[in-house]
């Protein structure tokens, strides 16, 4: 049986929720799901706040900027081949022959990969922190706007 006595029922997000009777054999599925989801969210929040996560994102931003800054007009073919090898084969880890794609196509695929990575990072942070806490940070607001504009 679920007890719903208002004076002693615990609050979740400001609302009173029914408490599980200790005589029941197992709690309802909704409570089990809520507990699991909370544990997952706290684990993600803990992961987001680590230095490794922060520096991984910063390094990806740097590589993305380097990838965008490298392309220039009338560049030699050897530079295109070298940069295609570094940015496409090593960063994306996709073995593709340099002759099958030109450098512009490789940069486009690299940019799309970076964009998808940044959107996934933004969504993970939104889920782990919650959208209100995520949007309190000016850095996260800037990150969100830049990711959605690109």
List keywords for this structure.
150 residues, mainly alpha, 5% strand, elongated, 4 strands, two-stranded antiparallel ribbon
Describe the overall structure.
The chain is mainly alpha-helical. It has a domain at 52-149. The protein contains six helices and four strands. The protein has helices at residues 29-48, 51-70, 77-91, 103-129, 131-134, 138-149, and strands at residues 2-3, 11-12, 15-16, 19-20. The strands form two sheets. A two-stranded antiparallel sheet has the order 1-4. A two-stranded antiparallel sheet has the order 2-3. Helix 1 (29-48) packs across helix 4, helix 2 (51-70) runs antiparallel to helix 4 (103-129) and helix 3 (77-91) packs parallel to helix 4 (103-129). The longest helix has 27 residues, at 103-129. The radius of gyration is 24 Å and the shape is elongated. The model has no long low-confidence stretch (mean pLDDT 78).
Distance between the termini: 52 Å
Q: What kind of sheet is the major sheet?
A: 2 strands, antiparallel
Overall mean pLDDT: 78
Give me the strand/helix succession.
EEEEHHHHHH
Residues in β-strands, percent: 5-15%
Question: How many distinct helices?
Answer: 6
Question: What's the β-strand tally?
Answer: 4
Radius of gyration: 24 Å
Strand order of the largest sheet: 1-4
- Structural class by helix and strand composition: mainly alpha
Task: Give the low-pLDDT segments.
Answer: none
Helix content bin: 55-70%
Global outline: elongated
Provide a quick synopsis of the model.
This protein is mainly α and 150 residues long. It is built from 6 helices and 4 strands; from the N terminus they run E-E-E-E-H-H-H-H-H-H. The strands form 2 sheets. Strands 1-4 form a two-stranded antiparallel sheet. A two-stranded antiparallel sheet has the order 2-3.
